[in-house]
Amino acid sequence: MAEVRRALAILSAASLTLRANPTGGSLNLAILPAFGMHWLAPRLAGFAQEHPEVTVNLSTRLHPFDFATSAFDAAIHYGRQDWPGVDYLKLMDEEILAVAAPSLLKSPLTTPEAILSHPLLQLESRTGDWGRWLAHHGHPGARPTGMLFDQFATMMQGAIHGLGIALLPLFLIQRELAEGRLIPAFGAPIRALGSYYLVWPKARAPRAPLTSFRNWAATQTT
After folding, report:
1. What residue stretches are annotated with the LysR substrate-binding domain (predicted)?
2. For labelling, which of 14, 37, 146, 220 has a CA lying 20 to 30 Å from the CA of 119?
3. What is the pTM of this model?
């Protein structure tokens, strides 16, 4: 009976807390590492100021997963609207730029095909990016290979240390470009195939913290 009374007391206290602060609670959000660090993290302080009642818990996931078997309320997704069973809020398109360290390239290349005479860096999940980049610049059909990385952060460090030329999202390398640690290898940024989205499961009624976060995120879209 004592355990039952304790359980009832806990439930009663939780009920009182929810009635006093019905929009509070935690939000479990799956993020992509580079986007989470360079786009989301600088903005989260603003969300915390607007919604101090919500605690945002962040965890890294690189690929889509089944919300039905996870504790996540929402996730950051890169690509197209191809995640089954979710709703989408588009956060931003992505632009990518070919960059290299000044130790590898003293100045930008004069032709796009000159890229092929240098070592190339690429993401495991985007091995077609260099082929699309070359096609954009008038050289279709090529599918060059290069050193593979599983995350943008490590690929960026590889580029900074002169391992090769990398195609990197513009939002990720603004500081490195401004400080001269990376320079454009050729041309202007081009539009990537995918975009970044906030996604959440259609089959699950959204909790108040998710609604607050979703409404706030809609004001941050670019």
Report:
1. 22-219
2. 37
3. 0.82
